[in-house]
């Protein structure tokens, strides 16, 4: 181990994953431990915040210990600790923030506060070590849908965001309506592969005020109306066709806005991020659209798209080297914006 190497422990507890990772120099993952609470929440059809907080309390210590062990380090080797402080569920966020503050204080190492949405973007630096800003980025997760121009590390111009539901949220809601259960994204992704994306025509919403903004609540209502009218007419629903047609509408809108921005801003690089970035159809479409235009396309491997500690450690690294530190008064900010 050389002195100049920087080892950051990243902690993520904003929703239903208790995650910790050690990342070297911002881009090399030494460990990435993720305890997913999905099985706990499945029976309720979604994340129950109180239960999530309690699970984080149970798992945070073993998950962090395992991350340090798998990295082959001990806690004296850590240069700093990075933690998600928002946006997310307040109880779950507080578990990570309180733990990180106590850990930083006890170990005598600096604490760095990380915005969860920013963390998703930084997952791209881990799998693509040559990637440097500026680039355009589409962040699509369960809580967020943002189209941004990342001009430098930590610098973002927001081009558009969702006016209502996030892309992942619409996947989860539609999955519930067609009986696929939680979490909906991966289940619709799988179901859609056996369906015809052109079988049902669902709307592709445009937002009048901003050509880069998104809206998914109308699409969700259109799917619910379609299901209701089938039921009333006693027409059997083809689940794979509904999944494929819904997904085609989401992907069209996401890729459509993304490429409009790429054309107008003459982007040379485009990165995809967030849980929905693990979607097969979206990855394929974005890659094709970028290739057509000669734009370099980046997307993290699926395990780094959904919530994890490595992306938080990577984002923390860039904050750390720019001199930013959080104090022990750090608090969770559930509605933190990018
Ligand atoms: O980034 P993430 O793990 O958590 C948030 O920050 O929200 O994203 C979770 C979201 C969920 O809505 C989930 O259904 C969606 O990402 N998701 C997917 C896929 N895998 C996860 N959506 C579509 N296709 C997938 N393969
Ligand atoms: Zn996330």
Give the overall shape: globular
Number of strands: 10
DSSP helical segment count: 11
Give, in order, the helices and strands. Answer: EEEHHEHEHEEEHHHHEHEHH
- Low confidence ranges: none
The helix content is 40-55%
> Largest sheet, if any?
5 strands, mixed
Which structural category do the helix and sheet elements fall into? alpha/beta
- Which cofactor or ligand species appear? 5'-O-[(R)-(carboxyoxy)(hydroxy)phosphoryl]adenosine, zinc ion
Could you tell me the mean pLDDT?
97
- Strand order of the main beta sheet, please? 3-2-1-4-5
Distance between the termini: 35 Å
Global Rg = 20 Å
Strand content: 15-25%
What is the topological layout?
Layout: E1 7-12, E2 17-24, E3 28-36, H1 38-42, H2 49-70, E4 80-86, H3 90-107, E5 111-115, H4 116-127, E6 135-140, E7 145-152, E8 155-161, H5 167-177, H6 184-192, H7 217-232, H8 239-264, E9 269-273, H9 280-293, E10 296-298, H10 302-305, H11 309-321
Parallel strand pairs: 1-4, 4-5, 6-9, 9-10
Antiparallel strand pairs: 1-2, 2-3, 6-7, 7-8
Helix pairs in contact: 2-3, 4-11, 5-6, 5-7, 5-8, 6-8, 8-9
Zinc ion binds near residues 116, 120, 141 and 307.
